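Team,

Forwarding the record for the chain on the shared tracking sheet. I've put the sequence and predicted structure together so nobody has to dig through attachments.
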Amino acid sequence: MADWFSSWFNTHYYHILYKNRDEKEAEFFMENLLSYLSLAEGSLLVDMACGKGRHAHFLHNQGYKVIGMDLSSESIAFANKDVSEGLSFKVHDMRDSLDWTFSVDAVLNLFTSFGYFDSITEHEKVIENFSSKIKPGGYFVFDFMNAHRVVKELVAEEVKTVDSIEFHIRRFVENRIIYKQIQFDDNGEKYQFQESVMGILLTDFKQMLEKHSMEIIDTFGNFSLEAFDPETSDRLILVAKKK
């Protein structure tokens, strides 16, 4: 299903299904990450695939300048309802080149907002686009799923009820792509969407980043920034530094 994210992320059903994401947990992670990075106040950050801007707003409130970017026009419209000096949002496909004449201190890609494309080449293009705009000594941070563990412990089927809607979810893996089929009824109408995320591993990230002058300096396995273990960690959080 080509560019499934173009339609699914723009529906309000996407936000209903994922509405119960833990905000306190997200802030806990961001506080730990910012403490680790020790960026100077006023640093310019990019929130790549920012959604409705919850993390961009948090970063801005911590004293940073932030550019939030996302393919979903609906999400960016929502984020743009609350902007101020040093905080901006724009619709952007991360695969497209950036025409900026300036460079940034860090690019953050949070909560598995990567891996949506069919080939490693497309993902590498994203890294090329954004790493080219990072200052020497700046950071590229990915917070991704631990694909090894996800595949090993894949839940094939489940039903989630949110706002009286029963979401029937089926998961499977083909050619390194983790698929999630989502079916539900609402107001007498039947709906079906599909998510697909490539199971990108640490070795894949390392190869892609090194091609574009980025060196992985740390990997973490959870929001407490404990060491990454491919067998047990919930997340793959990696920090790369521009050479």
